[in-house]
């Protein structure tokens, strides 16, 4: 069963194209993480928040990635990390054309 990891946190920037330029290597490294199928990057410059939605193959891989990512964010000085893990209802997600890839 696939699982979604939702993470968001306060961040002063960069956002938009500057964020893309600054974090491209980090983005590429996520492709190498065991069990992480994809990520949608999220940002809200007005609220000074950023984060992402990650699709993982299992709950265990989502938890493992969250642990590693939380430590990395803390190393960057991020202190207010909000994270949730959800099971994916594959049948309903398929009806609404969600990209599950399972």
What is the average per-residue confidence, as pLDDT, rounded to a whole number?
93
Uncertain regions: pLDDT < 50 for 5+ in a row? none
Count the strands? 4
What is the tally of helical segments? 3
Account of the protein in words:
- The chain is globular.
- The N and C termini lie close together (8 Å).
- The chain has one domain: Alpha-Beta Plaits, CATH 3.30.70.
- The model has no long low-confidence stretch (mean pLDDT 93).
- It has 3 helices and 4 strands.
- Strand 2 (36-44) and strand 3 (49-56) form a beta hairpin.
- It has a 4-stranded antiparallel β-sheet with strand order 2-3-1-4, with helices on one face.
- It is an alpha+beta fold and 102 residues long.
- The longest helix is centred in the middle third of the chain and has 17 residues, at 59-75.
- This is Putative mono-oxygenase ydhR.
- Pfam families: ydhR.
- InterPro entries: Dimeric_a/b-barrel, YdhR.
- It comes from Sporosarcina newyorkensis.
